[in-house]
Protein backbone atom coordinates (compact mmCIF):
# COMPACT_ATOMS: atom_id res chain seq x y z
CA UNK A 1 0.00 0.00 0.00
CA UNK A 2 1.45 3.36 -1.01
CA UNK A 3 1.72 6.12 1.56
CA UNK A 4 1.54 9.87 1.14
CA UNK A 5 4.94 11.56 0.99
CA UNK A 6 5.58 15.20 1.85
CA UNK A 7 7.62 16.65 -1.03
CA UNK A 8 8.20 20.25 0.10
CA UNK A 9 8.06 22.36 3.21
CA UNK A 10 4.92 24.42 3.77
CA UNK A 11 5.95 26.79 0.97
CA UNK A 12 2.49 28.05 -0.03
CA UNK A 13 -0.16 30.04 1.75
CA UNK A 14 -2.78 28.72 -0.65
CA UNK A 15 -1.27 26.08 -2.93
CA UNK A 16 -3.39 25.17 -5.95
CA UNK A 17 -3.42 23.96 -9.53
CA UNK A 18 -0.50 21.50 -9.95
CA UNK A 19 0.57 20.88 -13.57
CA UNK A 20 3.07 18.36 -14.93
CA UNK A 21 4.28 19.05 -18.47
CA UNK A 22 7.27 17.26 -19.99
CA UNK A 23 8.42 20.50 -21.65
CA UNK A 24 8.82 22.28 -18.31
CA UNK A 25 11.73 21.69 -15.92
CA UNK A 26 9.46 20.25 -13.24
CA UNK A 27 6.03 20.33 -11.65
CA UNK A 28 4.46 23.79 -11.46
CA UNK A 29 1.68 24.95 -9.17
CA UNK A 30 0.40 28.25 -7.83
CA UNK A 31 0.43 30.08 -4.51
CA UNK A 32 -2.82 31.70 -5.51
CA UNK A 33 -3.26 34.74 -3.28
CA UNK A 34 0.48 35.49 -3.36
CA UNK A 35 0.30 35.75 -7.15
CA UNK A 36 3.18 33.32 -7.59
CA UNK A 37 3.91 30.24 -9.68
CA UNK A 38 6.05 27.64 -7.90
CA UNK A 39 8.29 25.11 -9.64
CA UNK A 40 9.75 21.92 -8.18
CA UNK A 41 13.19 20.79 -9.30
CA UNK A 42 12.69 17.02 -9.77
CA UNK A 43 16.33 16.27 -8.96
CA UNK A 44 17.15 18.52 -6.00
CA UNK A 45 13.67 19.11 -4.63
CA UNK A 46 14.31 22.85 -4.59
CA UNK A 47 11.32 25.15 -5.12
CA UNK A 48 11.59 28.34 -7.16
CA UNK A 49 8.98 31.08 -7.20
CA UNK A 50 7.91 33.49 -9.96
CA UNK A 51 5.56 36.42 -9.30
CA UNK A 52 3.07 36.73 -12.17
CA UNK A 53 0.33 39.02 -10.84
CA UNK A 54 -1.83 40.02 -7.90
CA UNK A 55 -3.42 36.58 -8.13
CA UNK A 56 -2.06 33.44 -9.83
CA UNK A 57 -5.14 31.27 -10.22
CA UNK A 58 -4.14 28.61 -12.76
CA UNK A 59 -1.72 27.90 -15.60
CA UNK A 60 -1.39 25.55 -18.53
CA UNK A 61 1.31 25.01 -21.16
CA UNK A 62 1.41 25.65 -24.85
CA UNK A 63 2.88 22.63 -26.66
CA UNK A 64 6.13 24.62 -27.11
CA UNK A 65 6.48 25.31 -23.37
CA UNK A 66 5.09 28.83 -23.16
CA UNK A 67 2.32 29.31 -20.61
CA UNK A 68 -1.19 30.68 -20.42
CA UNK A 69 -2.24 32.00 -17.02
CA UNK A 70 -5.37 33.02 -15.20
CA UNK A 71 -4.66 36.11 -13.10
CA UNK A 72 -6.95 38.11 -10.82
CA UNK A 73 -9.49 39.44 -13.32
CA UNK A 74 -8.54 37.77 -16.57
CA UNK A 75 -5.84 35.96 -18.50
CA UNK A 76 -2.17 36.41 -19.41
CA UNK A 77 0.43 34.87 -21.70
CA UNK A 78 3.98 34.09 -20.54
CA UNK A 79 7.23 32.77 -21.95
CA UNK A 80 8.48 29.33 -20.94
CA UNK A 81 10.47 30.64 -17.97
CA UNK A 82 7.58 32.83 -16.74
CA UNK A 83 10.01 35.75 -16.76
CA UNK A 84 7.90 37.74 -19.22
CA UNK A 85 4.17 37.91 -18.48
CA UNK A 86 1.79 39.74 -20.82
CA UNK A 87 -1.63 40.34 -19.26
CA UNK A 88 -4.63 40.51 -21.55
CA UNK A 89 -7.44 42.96 -20.86
CA UNK A 90 -9.56 42.56 -17.76
CA UNK A 91 -12.59 40.34 -18.30
CA UNK A 92 -14.51 42.24 -15.58
CA UNK A 93 -13.83 45.31 -13.42
CA UNK A 94 -15.37 44.31 -10.07
CA UNK A 95 -12.48 44.14 -7.54
CA UNK A 96 -14.53 41.79 -5.37
CA UNK A 97 -14.28 38.96 -7.92
CA UNK A 98 -11.19 36.89 -8.78
CA UNK A 99 -10.25 33.91 -10.91
CA UNK A 100 -9.94 30.58 -9.09
CA UNK A 101 -9.26 27.37 -11.05
CA UNK A 102 -9.14 26.14 -14.62
CA UNK A 103 -7.82 23.89 -17.36
CA UNK A 104 -7.69 23.28 -21.11
CA UNK A 105 -10.17 21.40 -23.27
CA UNK A 106 -9.24 18.85 -25.98
CA UNK A 107 -9.49 21.63 -28.59
CA UNK A 108 -6.73 23.71 -27.00
CA UNK A 109 -8.83 26.36 -25.28
CA UNK A 110 -8.23 27.48 -21.69
CA UNK A 111 -11.07 27.78 -19.19
CA UNK A 112 -10.99 29.42 -15.79
CA UNK A 113 -13.78 30.12 -13.35
CA UNK A 114 -14.25 32.97 -10.92
CA UNK A 115 -15.58 33.53 -7.42
CA UNK A 116 -16.20 36.42 -5.05
CA UNK A 117 -13.55 37.03 -2.39
CA UNK A 118 -16.53 37.01 0.00
CA UNK A 119 -17.77 33.73 -1.56
CA UNK A 120 -21.06 35.42 -2.48
CA UNK A 121 -23.45 32.79 -3.87
CA UNK A 122 -23.81 32.96 -7.65
CA UNK A 123 -21.28 35.77 -8.13
CA UNK A 124 -18.86 33.75 -10.26
CA UNK A 125 -18.72 32.54 -13.85
CA UNK A 126 -16.76 30.13 -16.02
CA UNK A 127 -14.84 31.73 -18.89
CA UNK A 128 -13.09 30.30 -21.95
CA UNK A 129 -10.02 31.86 -23.58
CA UNK A 130 -9.48 30.93 -27.23
CA UNK A 131 -6.02 31.01 -28.84
CA UNK A 132 -6.98 34.19 -30.74
CA UNK A 133 -7.40 35.99 -27.41
CA UNK A 134 -11.19 36.11 -27.44
CA UNK A 135 -13.04 35.34 -24.20
CA UNK A 136 -16.43 33.61 -23.94
CA UNK A 137 -18.63 33.27 -20.85
CA UNK A 138 -19.54 29.58 -20.61
CA UNK A 139 -21.41 29.39 -17.29
CA UNK A 140 -22.90 31.98 -14.94
CA UNK A 141 -24.37 31.88 -11.41
CA UNK A 142 -21.34 29.97 -10.10
CA UNK A 143 -20.25 30.38 -6.47
CA UNK A 144 -16.75 28.85 -6.18
CA UNK A 145 -15.66 27.63 -9.61
CA UNK A 146 -13.17 24.82 -9.14
CA UNK A 147 -12.02 21.56 -10.73
CA UNK A 148 -12.35 21.07 -14.48
CA UNK A 149 -11.16 17.96 -16.34
CA UNK A 150 -11.95 15.78 -19.36
CA UNK A 151 -12.46 12.05 -19.83
CA UNK A 152 -9.75 10.10 -21.67
CA UNK A 153 -11.80 10.08 -24.91
CA UNK A 154 -12.50 13.82 -24.63
CA UNK A 155 -16.25 13.32 -24.87
CA UNK A 156 -17.12 14.19 -21.27
CA UNK A 157 -16.14 17.23 -19.20
CA UNK A 158 -16.25 17.21 -15.41
CA UNK A 159 -16.77 20.37 -13.37
CA UNK A 160 -16.98 21.40 -9.71
CA UNK A 161 -18.77 24.38 -8.18
CA UNK A 162 -17.60 23.62 -4.65
CA UNK A 163 -20.60 24.57 -2.47
CA UNK A 164 -22.86 22.26 -4.48
CA UNK A 165 -20.79 19.34 -3.11
CA UNK A 166 -21.09 17.75 -6.55
CA UNK A 167 -18.98 16.78 -9.49
CA UNK A 168 -21.06 17.49 -12.59
CA UNK A 169 -20.55 15.97 -16.03
CA UNK A 170 -21.20 17.57 -19.40
CA UNK A 171 -21.28 16.09 -22.87
CA UNK A 172 -18.48 17.75 -24.85
CA UNK A 173 -18.34 18.22 -28.62
CA UNK A 174 -16.67 21.63 -28.64
CA UNK A 175 -19.43 22.98 -26.41
CA UNK A 176 -20.71 21.87 -23.00
CA UNK A 177 -24.23 20.40 -22.79
CA UNK A 178 -26.31 17.89 -20.85
CA UNK A 179 -25.17 18.86 -17.37
CA UNK A 180 -25.84 16.21 -14.71
CA UNK A 181 -24.45 15.29 -11.28
CA UNK A 182 -22.20 12.21 -11.21
CA UNK A 183 -20.63 12.53 -7.72
CA UNK A 184 -22.23 13.82 -4.54
CA UNK A 185 -19.86 14.47 -1.64
CA UNK A 186 -21.37 14.18 1.86
CA UNK A 187 -20.90 17.18 4.13
CA UNK A 188 -18.70 15.30 6.58
CA UNK A 189 -16.20 14.51 3.79
CA UNK A 190 -15.45 18.17 3.00
CA UNK A 191 -16.07 20.22 -0.12
CA UNK A 192 -14.86 19.08 -3.56
CA UNK A 193 -12.13 21.40 -4.84
CA UNK A 194 -9.68 20.58 -7.64
CA UNK A 195 -9.60 17.29 -9.53
CA UNK A 196 -7.90 15.25 -12.20
CA UNK A 197 -8.80 12.20 -14.32
CA UNK A 198 -6.61 9.10 -14.67
CA UNK A 199 -5.98 7.04 -17.81
CA UNK A 200 -8.80 4.66 -16.85
CA UNK A 201 -11.29 7.52 -16.59
CA UNK A 202 -11.58 7.68 -12.81
CA UNK A 203 -11.94 11.02 -11.04
CA UNK A 204 -9.50 12.04 -8.29
CA UNK A 205 -11.10 14.82 -6.25
CA UNK A 206 -9.37 16.97 -3.61
CA UNK A 207 -11.53 17.63 -0.54
CA UNK A 208 -11.25 21.06 1.08
CA UNK A 209 -11.76 20.66 4.80
CA UNK A 210 -11.76 16.89 4.40
CA UNK A 211 -8.03 16.14 4.56
CA UNK A 212 -8.20 13.72 1.64
CA UNK A 213 -8.38 12.98 -2.06
CA UNK A 214 -11.17 10.62 -3.09
CA UNK A 215 -11.23 8.52 -6.26
CA UNK A 216 -14.53 7.87 -8.04
CA UNK A 217 -15.59 5.90 -11.07
CA UNK A 218 -17.28 7.96 -13.82
CA UNK A 219 -20.67 6.88 -12.46
CA UNK A 220 -19.84 8.11 -8.96
CA UNK A 221 -18.71 5.03 -7.05
CA UNK A 222 -16.05 5.77 -4.41
CA UNK A 223 -13.11 3.40 -4.93
CA UNK A 224 -10.13 4.89 -3.08
CA UNK A 225 -9.31 7.37 -0.31
CA UNK A 226 -5.97 9.13 0.06
CA UNK A 227 -5.68 10.59 3.57
CA UNK A 228 -3.41 13.59 4.20
CA UNK A 229 -2.07 15.05 7.46
CA UNK A 230 -3.68 18.45 6.77
CA UNK A 231 -7.33 19.42 6.31
CA UNK A 232 -7.24 21.96 3.48
CA UNK A 233 -6.56 19.80 0.42
CA UNK A 234 -6.96 21.86 -2.74
CA UNK A 235 -6.02 20.06 -5.96
CA UNK A 236 -4.18 17.13 -7.51
CA UNK A 237 -2.50 16.17 -10.78
CA UNK A 238 -0.59 13.19 -12.12
CA UNK A 239 3.09 13.74 -12.83
CA UNK A 240 6.49 12.16 -13.03
CA UNK A 241 8.08 10.70 -16.19
CA UNK A 242 5.54 7.83 -16.20
CA UNK A 243 2.59 9.95 -15.01
CA UNK A 244 2.20 7.53 -12.11
CA UNK A 245 2.65 9.99 -9.23
CA UNK A 246 -0.30 11.98 -7.87
CA UNK A 247 0.86 15.41 -6.70
CA UNK A 248 -1.43 17.05 -4.15
CA UNK A 249 -1.49 20.73 -3.15
CA UNK A 250 -2.63 22.09 0.21
CA UNK A 251 -3.43 25.40 1.89
CA UNK A 252 -2.92 27.23 5.18
CA UNK A 253 -6.11 29.24 4.73
CA UNK A 254 -8.70 28.51 7.40
CA UNK A 255 -6.16 26.65 9.54
CA UNK A 256 -5.56 27.76 13.12
CA UNK A 257 -2.06 29.20 13.32
CA UNK A 258 0.46 26.64 14.50
CA UNK A 259 -1.98 23.73 14.42
CA UNK A 260 -0.96 22.08 11.12
CA UNK A 261 2.71 22.62 10.35
CA UNK A 262 2.51 20.78 7.02
CA UNK A 263 -0.38 22.86 5.67
CA UNK A 264 0.77 24.57 2.47
CA UNK A 265 3.15 21.75 1.55
CA UNK A 266 3.13 19.71 -1.66
CA UNK A 267 2.50 15.98 -1.24
CA UNK A 268 2.92 12.94 -3.50
CA UNK A 269 1.11 9.61 -3.66
CA UNK A 270 1.63 6.61 -5.94
CA UNK A 271 -1.85 5.15 -6.53
CA UNK A 272 -0.87 2.34 -8.89
CA UNK A 273 -2.52 3.97 -11.91
CA UNK A 274 -1.34 6.49 -14.47
CA UNK A 275 -2.70 9.86 -15.38
CA UNK A 276 -3.24 11.56 -18.71
CA UNK A 277 -0.85 14.06 -20.31
CA UNK A 278 -1.93 17.62 -19.58
CA UNK A 279 -4.12 19.17 -22.28
CA UNK A 280 -2.24 22.08 -23.86
CA UNK A 281 -3.30 25.51 -25.09
CA UNK A 282 -3.27 26.69 -28.68
What descriptive keywords fit this protein?
single chain; globular; 4-stranded antiparallel beta sheet; Neuraminidase; 0% helix; 282 residues; 48% strand; mainly beta
Tell me the domain tally. 1
Element-level helix/strand string: EEEEEEEEEEEEEEEEEEEEEEEE
Spatial sequence of strands, sheet with the most strands: 1-24-23-22
Low-confidence stretches: none
Q: Tell me the strand percentage band.
A: over 45%
Q: Total number of β-strand segments?
A: 24
- Please state the CA-atom Rg, rounded to the nearest Å: 17 Å
CATH topology: Neuraminidase
Major β-sheet, in short? 4 strands, antiparallel
Tell me the name of the CATH homologous superfamily. TolB, C-terminal domain
Query: What general form does the structure show?
Result: globular
Q: Which class best fits the helix and strand makeup?
A: mainly beta
With helices defined by DSSP (H or I, 4 residues minimum), what is the helix count?
0
CATH architecture: 6 Propeller
- Give helix % range: under 10%
CATH class division: Mainly Beta
End-to-end Cα distance:
39 Å
Mean pLDDT across every amino acid position? 98
Amino acid sequence: MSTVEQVTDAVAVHGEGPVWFAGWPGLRWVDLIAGDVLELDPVTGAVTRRHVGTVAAALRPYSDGRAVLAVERGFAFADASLGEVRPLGEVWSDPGIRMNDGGCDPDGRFYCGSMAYAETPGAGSLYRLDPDGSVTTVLTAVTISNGLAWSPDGGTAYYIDSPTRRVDAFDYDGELSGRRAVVRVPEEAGMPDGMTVDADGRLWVALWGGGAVHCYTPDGKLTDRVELPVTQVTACAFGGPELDELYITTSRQGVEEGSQHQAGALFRYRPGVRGLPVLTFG
